[in-house]
Amino acid sequence: MVKPIHKAIFPVAGRGTRFLPATKILAKEMLPIVDKPLIQYAVEEARNAGIEEFFFVTGRGKVALVDHFDHAIELEQALLERGDKKALQSVLPPSGRVFATRQQEPLGLGHAVLCAQKFVGEEAFAVLLADDLILAEPGCLKQMMDVYKEVGGNVVACENVPRERTCHYGILDIAEDDGRLARARGLVEKPDPAEAPSTLSIIGRYILQPEIFRHLEKREVGAGNEIQLTDSLAKTVSGIPFHGLRFKGKRFDCGGKLGFLEANLAFALERQDLGPRVHEMLKKYR
Ligand code: G1P
After folding, report:
1. Which is nearest to 209 in space by CA: 248, 156, 173?
2. Segments forming the whole domain that contains residue 62
3. Closest ligand 1 atom to the C-alpha of 190?
4. Span 213-226, mean pLDDT?
5. CATH code for the domain of 242
6. Distance 203 CA to ligand 1 centre (A)
7. Which ligand 1 atom sits nearest the alpha carbon of residue 131?
8. Residue from 111, 158, 202 whose mutation best tests the ligand 1 pocket (most atoms within 8 A of CB)
């Protein structure tokens, strides 16, 4: 029996300098893809995978992000009176419980996850990076949950990247691979292309066992002078099975402008109310 998963961590303390000036005041995770903030896609994906407790690791200037997942009583009342059920549904907090803490210094993704240690306790848990937006049905985390029920241990979402891009990702050293699921014998954070053990890279979705905290607690600094989640995960590989799932779906790197713009187009094209008109509009730009 694998440990059930009810909790998810959303590290959202990053500064989002690539989107200045939009992110001078606004959290980058609040930037909309069509009409919904990036972070809400991640929260809905988690909810649809069975998550009931949502924990935001925020930073300075991110108060609005936490407010976004609270009730907005006057707005809800107005939408109710207007009979606009669809809009009302879209602004309600996720069913379950919402928590937040602050990562007071930007010390890395591993440190952000460590900030949630008390919240997680000794349970298995999920981590979602909102920058990695995934268009998939069922959602990426749900696909991972189904695999986790079979293989247990640590499970991450994976995708192959061009070799020259391995220096932007956590990379798997593959022991076994059936084309969908790869078991890793090691992991390297942001290796030089020439030294990368493969091109199979971690995308921002993790299912983790609480043992990771024994390593994160040591606060060892790795690539980019940050406390890296990948480095602590690498230390668990000998004792806890580690699998990378090539999920079904399309991932957009919304941490950069091109990925963000492409996601806006792809999500708009998927929508019944917008898709055909966006398609027509795009013809003007060929
Ligand atoms: C983080 C992780 C990296 C992972 C990536 C996925 O890097 O450290 O292992 O591959 O997310 O998006 P970041 O993008 O925060 O530099």
Report:
1. 156
2. 5-285
3. 9
4. 94
5. 3.90.550.10
6. 7
7. 12
8. 202
Kindly report, residue by residue over 51-79, the tens digit of the pLDDT: 999 999 999 888 899 999 999 999 999 99
Q: Which band of pLDDT confidence, cut at 50, 70 and 90, is reported for residue 14?
A: confident
pLDDT recorded at residue 61:
80
Structure tokens at 208: 């983790």
The answer to whether residue 16 scores a pLDDT higher than 90 is no
For residue 4, is the peptide bond before it cis, meaning its omega torsion is within 30 degrees of 0?
Answer: no
CB atoms within 10 A of CB 272: 6
Q: Which residues of 231-268 are buried (b: 16+ CB within 10 A; e: fewer)?
A: bbbbbbbeeeebbbbbbeeebbbbbeeebbebbbbbbb
Residues in the ligand 1 pocket, defined by CB under 6 Å = 109, 129, 132, 169-170, 189, 201-204, 228-230, 255
pLDDT in tens, 254-274: 999 999 999 999 999 999 999
Q: How far is the CA of 96 from the centre of ligand 1 (A)?
A: 27
**Bond preceding residue 21 cis, omega within 30 of 0:** yes
Total domains in the fold of the chain: 1
- Per residue in 173-214, pLDDT tens? 999 999 999 999 999 999 999 999 999 999 999 999 999 999
Please measure the distance between the N-terminal and C-terminal CA atoms of the chain and give it in whole angstroms: 54
Q: Which atom of ligand 1 is nearest to the CA of 228?
A: 8
- Name the residue with the closest Cα to ligand 1, atom 9: 170
Identify the DSSP state of 181.
E
CA 145 to chain centre: 14
Number of the ligand 1 atom closest to the C-alpha atom of 201? 10
Q: Is the pTM of this model over 0.85?
A: yes
